[in-house]
Every structure is written in structure tokens, then in C-alpha cells.
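Q: Here's a chain of 422 amino acids. Please give me its 3D structure as C-alpha cells.
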Amino acid sequence: MNSQQVDCGGDETPQQPLMSTDKALEILIDSANIIDGTIFVGLEEALNSVLASDIQSNINVPSFDNSAMDGYAINLDDNLVNISGESSFIITDRISAGTTGKTLLPGCAARIFTGAPIPRGANTVIMQEECNLIEDDTKIQIYRPLALNENIRPCGNDIQVDDVILKSGIKLKPQDIALSASVGVNELEIINKITVGVFFTGDELVEPGNTLKGGQIYNSNRYSLVALLNNLGCIVINLGNIKDTLDSTCEALKKLMHDCDIIMTTGGVSVGEEDHIKDAVQSLGRLTLWRIKMKPGKPLAFGKVGNAAFIGLPGNPVSAMVTFLLFARPFIKKMQGLSDYMNYTFKVESNFNWHGSKPRREFVRVRVDSSSSPAKANMYPKQGSDVLSSIVWADGLLEIPEGASFVSGELLNFYPFKEMMS
């Protein structure tokens, strides 16, 4: 990259009114385009990737009738079906998994093991625990009524030829990979991983392991953001901390704008004299939004720089995580080609009162008590955007609409961290 300083001067923009959270999310989702390009990978490398094309089976699973139990396959005469009393059968064969038995004649039985093919002529399987060996182990004797097709898994019982077993747009889980293997697929077409460039502004930031001086803080945002991106399977290019100047911010953007699908930052998106992200992005690209009517996390920026989408998260650690989960996460998941990209919520009851009719939508950190129905949400006592311990204590976010006022028992949307952090 050219390391000379660039002119980052931009026209002053009138202060934008606060945008609603719903409108902001709509803008991000509408702007998210599925990343170009796919690759084929072996099954062992496919975990957590996004499937690019449907998987259709070209075989039946199982491909033959087989035994669901260790026991005896029997050629049962129709006259013996459901007749009480004892029945006996001559043992004429032994069939283990991976072998094919001989045709079974009426009144005969074959010792058979789980998964072994049902021999021609057999029409039911009796568990070994229900059979007694008699006459020097040449016969079996059964003391209960018999029925046809017991313990037989028919051909195609699980999957049939031409069934679509996996749909494109899913994040591949271990069971998906196992299902692919069960129909003979040895590699999967997946969508290329997203590359996200990150850097962090703030001269007060110090890396963990160093000694803090007056006015300095440790940079927790770097590690939360990279961890969240790794959780989503992104490739991360990390420039680390940069100088809190307009020129340094522009240079960082220029290093990333042509090689990344997304650029993400924390800090520098507010309206202070030392907040340079907004001016830098506008000089090299454009901003679509940068202030959201929510708490925590009002200063959220979104736009485009070169080939890359740009998301600027707030500098306060709780605000950075909350805005990532609510906005960046579904944006990234849609870009990855996932069909299910929106955050999941369900209703819980507040176990606290809320007064004041606050003008911004709030996302408070809560812990849910599921011992009652409906579940009740208890609020962490300190809700400041700097209280990172609240994220560790909580198991999700409770959404409180603008202007709301209520007493304990109000039903509200709950965003579980268990789902949002995966």
C-alpha cells in the first residue's frame, strides 16, 4: 500500500436524526449480498461452513432390508402368525453384517446380526433374548405369538433415491456431515469464508500484559470482536490498535478496503473531536447510517469503503458487543449465504419494574429463571455500557420498547446469548 498521507477532508454533514433499531437493521439486511464464490471441501473440513448447494441422494438408505436386532431371521408360515403357544425353527444359516445369506425355506431360521441383510424368504426377525436354543443348538424355540416384519428395517427406511437430504444455506453441523457420508458423498460445496478486516482506535488503549499508565485502559474490544468473528467462521485480518488520528484511520481503511468483504472497527464513531472514523469513511466511501435510537450503542456506523462494507461499532465494551450481536451478526450471516440469519427471540416476563418512558429502545442484560412458566427475567443491577461483567453474568438481552413503562410481569422479547454467541 502507498504509505503517504492522504487528504481525508470531507464536507460537513448535518447531524443525522437518530434512526430506529428496526430501520437500521432493515438497511443492513437489505445491503447484505451473499459472498461470491464456492469451493469443494472434504467432509472433515466442512464443519461450520455454509452449504452452497442442495445435497440429493442417489441411493436408498439402507440400500437393502436389514435386521434391527441381533437375533434370528425366520421364514414364518402365514398359518403361524399371531398364534399363541410355542414355535420352533431349524437353524440353517448364520448372517453377519457385510455378508449375504442363503434363501431361507419355510420353517427355517438364520442366526442374524444387527445391520445384516435380510435373506430371501425371511419375513420377520425375533430378538435373541426371546429364543431358546434346543436340540444341541440346531433349533430355536419361541414361546410367544409371532408377527410378520418384526425388527426389519426396510430398504429406503431412512432416505430414498432422489431425496434432498440437506438444503443449501445451512451451517453444517456434525449430524449434517454424517448424513452426507451416509449417502456416499465425500465432499461438499461450501460458500467461501468472509474476510473481515479489523482495527481499533483510541490512544488510551493498551494491550493486556502491559502496565497501565494514567488514563489508560486495556483493549477488551479487540478480543471480543475477533472472538465473535471467529465464532461466525470469518477470516480475520487484524491491524490491531492504530493512532487516534484522521490520517492513521484513513491509512488503515486503505490497507483493508480492497482485500476484505467487511471492515469493522470499535470506537471513533461518536461526535467528539478525536472521533475520526466518520470523516475517514466519508472521504474514502460513504456512510448510510451512524446513529441509532437505542441503548446501549447509539453511535453505530454503516457504509461502504472500496469493495468492503463498513461497520463501526461503539467504543464502550458492552455497546460494542450488543450492537455486534443485534446488527453485525445477522448482516454477516446473510452475507455468508445462511438461510436462517435473523436473531432468534422468545417471550419472557420481566421480574422488575420499569418507569420513566425512556426515548430510546433499550436492551438490558438479564438472567432468566426458567423454574416458572413463563420464564422470568432478572435484570443486572448495573446497566452501564462500560460494565462488561454484566455480559458475563447475563444469559441474554431483554428488549424494552421506546416509551415503555410497566410493572413486574410484562412480556418482552428475550435474545438468548446461547444462540447469539454461536
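Q: Can you summarize the key feature?
A: The first strand starts at residue 38 and ends at 42.
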